[in-house]
Amino acid sequence: MSDIISITPLGGIILALLLAQFALERLAAWRNLRAWTDAPPPPFDQTRDLPTHRKGRDYLAARERLGAISSAVHLAALLLFWLLGGFVWLHGVAAASSGPIVVGLLFIGALLAADALLGLPFSLYSTFVIEQRFGFNRSDWRTFVSDRLKGALLGVLLGAPLLSALLAFFLWAGDLAWFYAWAAVIAFSLALQYIAPTWIMPLFNRFEPLADGPLKSRLQALCQRVGFDIAGLFVIDGSKRSSKANAFFTGFGKNRRIALFDTLIEGHDEAELEAVLAHEIGHYKRRHIHKGVAIGIAHTGLMLYLLGLALQSPALFAAFGLESMPVSAGLVFFAILFSPLEMAVGAAFAALSRKHEFEADRFAAQSVEDPGALARALVRLSTENLSHLTPAPLYVILSYSHPPLHARLAAIDAMESHSARSAQAQPPAHVATQGIGDSRA
Predict the structure, then answer these.
(1) Does the active-site annotation cover 64?
(2) Structural domains present in the chain
(3) pLDDT for position 415
(4) Which of 29, 278, 304, 361 has the most CB atoms around it within 10 Å of its CB?
């Protein structure tokens, strides 16, 4: 490699930000582990026994230890590679190829491959040691290897053309390069959202239409009742990899679909499954998908605009030891620079996501005959997944896309109490009232 890199003023700022990010993440994780109570707090003491609660604490501790080691190794590798002139050396190797786009693909591709290889041991340990020890893992070696090979192939087939386009824009499109890049990323993302449910996701999981029967009839009736048209209800073989249960909404237009994990169907009754489906529909009916796409588009545009400015800054390249200003290296350096700052953006997105989850819960509780079914489903999922019942506020702010369980249950309980009071306040049937029809959502 090249000689040891001298720390420039901007390099010192970047180094300090990276260390601060690591310290904040570890502090949040430590406080989150300390927040685990010795026994299940009320009202969970009625639904989670002490052995299960202690098992959940041990599971969290094991995952946090692995996370701390993984983060430390990745940060140390980045700093050593940077300060020992690794970026300068790698760009020199890649520059032996012809053409700036090929050079960029080789430079960035090598860094992504190295990062994937560095993270592989931690992924293996997480899957086949921690998840296995606590009874969650159902994946075998063949599935594990197949997933990573498919992911790498998709990364090349989909990522390389997009990256080539971005490099070309910032190389030759002048001051409007960021705008053309923005348009390309938007088009790519929307196309991916459209084709993912039918072309990409089935490469990893099997999607089968929900079988005819009482459950399907009940769920279809819910869709009709709330005015939700959908291409289909599917069962996904989540048990192929984990015993954890989930459900999700994906796609848009004619390709939108809701998938229920087979583990979810196995562990919940029809009322709970209806409430879970109503929650997923709530995200669409409250336009959370559209809002998320719009915010993502705006965020991407801002980042690409700032990237365009950063690519014109010799100080950024000098901070990593480069005298020249290759676009491919600038993309990487910009990502490193903004990684700590993105924590604040990520926290804002997480806060918005938690707000959306409350709204989806409200929609679900108002759309089913048994609002308590959603609460029962959430409690059961929390117990099955060994979830943290009292997470630390700092950890929630930084990492939780969903509200803590106690907050969701309190909101649902408040809705039920409000509905009960409203029902008691209704006038007798013979008293005339003014209304505009059925008040149910």
Answers:
(1) no
(2) 9-137+285-422 (no CATH), 207-267 (3.30.2010.10)
(3) 80
(4) 278
pLDDT (0 to 100) of residue 348? 95
**Per-residue pLDDT tens digits for 174-187:** 999 999 999 999 99
Query: Would residue 361 show up in a list of annotated catalytic residues for this protein?
Result: yes
- How far is 245 from 266, CA to CA, in rounded Å? 9
| Residue 208 labelled as part of a binding site | no
User: What pLDDT score was predicted for residue 290?
Assistant: 87
Q: How far apart are CA 118 and CA 393, in angstroms?
A: 31
Q: What distance lies between CA 199 and its chain's CA centroid? A: 20
Q: What is the amino acid identity at position 118? A: L
Residue 21 has pLDDT above 80, yes or no: yes
DSSP string, 118-187: HHHHHHHHIIIIIHHHTT-B---HHHHHHHHHHHHHHIIIIIHHHHHHHHHHHHHSGGGHHHHHHHHHHH
Q: Which of 25, 131, 272, 280 is catalytic?
A: 280
Residue 279 annotated as binding?
yes
Share of the chain above pLDDT 70, in %: 92
